[in-house]
Amino acid sequence: MNFDLIFEKNKKWIAEKLEIDPSYFEKLSKGQKPEILYIGCSDSRVTAEDILGANPGEIFIHRNIANMVISIDLNVMSVINYAVRHLKVKHIVVCGHYECGGVRASLESVDLGLLNPWLRNIRDVYRLHYQELDAIEDNQKRFNRLVELNVQEQCMNLIKTAAVQEAYKERVLTVHGWVFDIYSGKIVDLKIDFPAILSEIMKIYKLI
Ligand code: CO
Predict the structure, then answer these.
(1) 68 CA distance to ligand 1 centroid (A)?
(2) Catalytic residues, which ones?
(3) CATH number of this structure's domain 32-205, picked from the four choices 3.40.50.2000, 3.40.1050.10, 3.40.50.300, 3.40.50.720
(4) 81-94 in b/e burial notation, b at 16+ Cβ within 10 A?
(5) What is the pLDDT of residues 110-144, one digit of tens each?
(6) Can you give the pTM of this predicted structure?
């Protein structure tokens, strides 16, 4: 990686933006009003703005290993709180991706030190869905399904937060579970049936 090239590319990007709109950065500096909070994986191949075709100012983004929403992670919880309570986003997207290294590692018997407690959350997803997952004979298919179920569980973790429950009562907020299909570049909407899943368990997690 040529670091000088990064600064060259930056200059080119500035010129391109100013050519379209001379006051581009002046407008950008005024503030943000994104309608979407995107929670995705840190994987370098899954570039949020790129795959969504989004411009600066359009999406509030949080990325971590395996797109996790963990209740004691101050980082993701701060992002969710700010996006929902202050920016008042209308949509929250959890976007996983096939061939996720974090999900793959959670399927292996390996001690990864500091990563163990993080990945244990994915192992817990496996435990919650082990009957379905163990019934899948093909290793690749089981891996892909765990990626999808992990997205589903992280969406559920969002709905367990007071910020999201409060927003649900006050206005329209939609949670979406997606997977980036790294084999084709397509975004796949998992069309998770939240009302059906939540009808059984919401009594446990209801805060408001
Ligand atoms: Co990943």
Answers:
(1) 10
(2) 41, 43, 45, 97, 100
(3) 3.40.1050.10
(4) eebbeeeebeebbb
(5) 999 999 999 999 999 999 999 999 999 999 999 99
(6) 0.95
